[in-house]
Amino acid sequence: MALETAYIQDKLAQTFGNNVLNFEMKRDIFTFEATPNTIHEVIRFLKEQEDLNFHFLTDLAGIHFPDNDETHQFAVTYQLHNWIENVRIRVKTYLPDPAEVDTVTDLFLCANWMEREAWDFFGINFKGHPQLKRILNMEEMVSHPMRKEFPMEDSGRTDKDDRFFGRTPVNN
């Protein structure tokens, strides 16, 4: 029997109740949200349940939504893969600013660098991370360059217009 999205949703809803929500198929991948205080346990559940078997963390990424309400300023998305049934899912959690969520490095070692990248570029703090430090930018850098308030390169350049990158230009 193939692993059906309805089965995954039912198991999650039975175990976590209102802490998992907004289940949908989005661009051919089953997607849902989990509250920040339960995201670690939701991911542990998906990995450790023998009938779910999401043993591979494909990706973890940070996102900045400056126009959202203050409780949804940032998001962390986790993409998991069940190799046995060849099923992929995406789990999202929304965070306020300053963004902070539990690390999943204890569940997936590969999350180490992914979480460091999300911290480096977005300033999302992963509580319990064994070595949360910059991975691609210089240690001396004080900002997080993928945040929407970070300016795009040289403001005098004419080939790059902030409007095309989801950023509104600052009027001086």
The gist of it:
The protein has helices spanning 5-16, 39-48, 111-122, and strands at residues 20-26, 29-34, 56-64, 74-82, 87-95, 100-102, 125-127. With 172 residues, it is of the alpha/beta class.
| CATH homologous superfamily title | NADH:ubiquinone oxidoreductase Nqo5 subunit
CATH C-level = Alpha Beta
User: What would you call the structural class?
Assistant: alpha/beta
Helix content percent band:
10-25%
Share of β-strand residues: 25-35%
Strand element count: 7
Question: Would you give the CATH topology?
Answer: Beta Polymerase, domain 2
Instruction: List the uncertain runs.
Output: none
CATH architecture title: 2-Layer Sandwich
Please write the string of helix (H) and strand (E) elements: HEEHEEEEHE
What oligomeric state do these chains adopt? single chain
- Please summarize the sheet with the most strands: 5 strands, mixed
Tally of DSSP helical segments: 3
* CA distance, first residue to last residue: 61 Å
What is the averaged pLDDT score?
90
Number of domains: 1
Shape: globular
